[in-house]
Amino acid sequence: MFVQMTDALTDRTSAIRIEPEDVRLTVGALVDKHLRYCPVDTLVAQQRMSASSAQSLLALQDASYVLTDAGRLTHPIPNSSILQYDKPLGASDTPRVARIVADGVPIEVIALTFDRGPAGYARNWAGFHRRRWDRNRSFFEDFVNDTVSQTHRGSKHDEILALGSREASTELVRCLAKRIWRADFESYSRFTGNKLRYKTGDETVFSVAEGRGGICSEKVQALKFLTDGLGLESSYVLSGPGIPEPPPEDALRQILDTFDYSFSKRHMRYWQHVALLYDLDGVELLVDATNGNIPFLFVEGAEASEYLDYSQKKPLPVRMAEVSEQFYYHRADQSLVEDLYYAMENLVPEIDLVQVFDNELGLYIDESVFVTPVVYESEDEFESLKQQYATACEPEGLPLEISPSWSLDSPLGRDLRRRTPSVADAIEDSRDHLLERYDYFEGAGHQAGLVLIGLGKNPKPPV
Fold it and tell me: Domains in the chain, ordered, with CATH?
């Protein structure tokens, strides 16, 4: 007998083999036993749940309860509910047992769905980061130690980790920011491995440690997560192209509250990109460690003010792929950015596809090549898309390779495989799940090929 618990917002599902007597438990007792107080490590060791189920259960646990600042679970999030076959259940109800056949084997399952959609933007971010940090503290501390060790040895290494001065804190942030900047700017991990549609900060750190990475907003989350864990104060900064004026915070809040994007294209530029602003002993430090051909930005004091103050408003020249832009950085209401992150993680079901297609981040960007899918239903549609790419690339003199099949067998593709074979493998492995997701939202019958644009330029490296 199993209990299957699914997050209605993310579709992440966990299955646990339970005791026969658990069938008599009420919903409240069942959830307390197998979610709130679940001995995850013990059940994995007993092979009563898989490692992937364990990760999904822990994510559901973190999302289903109000957290203290210390990361402790308190009570269920207000306005959330537990459903069984679309019917709300009360804590005193006894759930139904279904008999199904899985892989040819008849099993009994108690299926529960956790719906926190009506709860809105319900997260204590300080508690969320603390809980995630404490759960894998030794891993994250080792990540920080290893990162500093790549640049500093001996007494200097120890001095930085001790965080005994502003200079030490600044250098620690620099070391972490460099490592995250150098990690892959990619979306291929949305369609391979754990297939997370959008990664939290801790999940992005794991991705970086495993040799992958994330997109700009995920990388910012990773850096903030690590430095939050180390006790360094930071805030989010909004950024985007061609927007020197202050953010229209009321309009951005309305978008978050209504999901109405009508006539909001210019407003949306303000959260096209995100960076971090640290306060280290009263000195501001502005950090953009995202890459994707965005230069490494690490400036403090008066130099940081040049980017943030409206009296001088200095832009950062950026050319991620074929378009050159001027990025402006803005202080902003933190709840706007936090709720934007929450929405991307939980409230936009097709966020994996949005980042690849709508936000035009593709599957992978480095200094030499931009790789993105081309999805189509007919030969005519493919030829039309091919012409659109040619129109964008030819004036800039950028090499373009576009294939109706999912293949890296081209000059740019072979060069990518020579330089980074693991990236080439991940891109090739992305096809099936990406196409499955695309067909789910847009209807069946699509085909997928690859577009490769040669960039042949180098972003400003960390120094």
Answer: 2-119 (no CATH), 125-353 (3.30.2140), 363-454 (no CATH)
